[in-house]
Amino acid sequence: xxxxxxxxxxxxxxxxxxxxxxxxxxxxxxxxxxxxxxxxxxxxxxxxxxxxxxxxxxxxxxxxxxxxxxxxxxxxxxxxxxxxxxxxxxxxxxxxxxxxxxxxxxxxxxxxxxxxxxxxxxxxxxxxxxxxxxxxxxxxxxxxxxxxxxxxxxxxxxxxxxxxxxxxxxxxxxxxxxxxxxxxxxxxxxxxxxxxxxxxxxxxxxxxxxxxxxxxxxxxxxxxxxxxxxxxxxxxxxx
Length: 239
Fold this sequence. Notes:
The protein contains four helices and nine strands. The chain is α+β, with helices and mostly antiparallel strands and 239 residues long.
């Protein structure tokens, strides 16, 4: 019987890489959802403001931003107010410095001439946008909730995007699924590398244990006392 040049039963490297990537991806999302499921508080809040100039030149308003980040979670909030009852803000930071790059296109209404629609019931707060992201070590998935008064009733009507609403939970407890590509890629590679190291370590341990006990490295056949350089069970060449 011709001796084999490699261990039998070994997982092909390409398949092992795909499995580790899949496990890394699912682990990244599972950890992010765990932060979303257990989220019940906020960290320190940084506030920023910006003056809004409407297209008609009247009723200039103010946009107030809240940014709150802690381990595994980032919350960004944008409040749009009319000019007459704008709340006083003491900590006036720049929005670009407190909002993550991946959230800026969705929460910063920076364009001059942004429409200024006053609701029928004259509510001061005209629009609210929440963006909540989760993941560790980087934010990898996020969801968004927008709320604006309806023309008929004037009540704030919320709308959740890119998130799975959990029963009996607020928006901040929703399970997000919109990806932050850099964070998702980094987290996936990180956790995939951990699974690869665990699998490699386990295989090396098994091979060392079989070699120490005088058994075949591929099929675990007892080779003690044999003079033939080939395993009689699987045909693997004996080192």
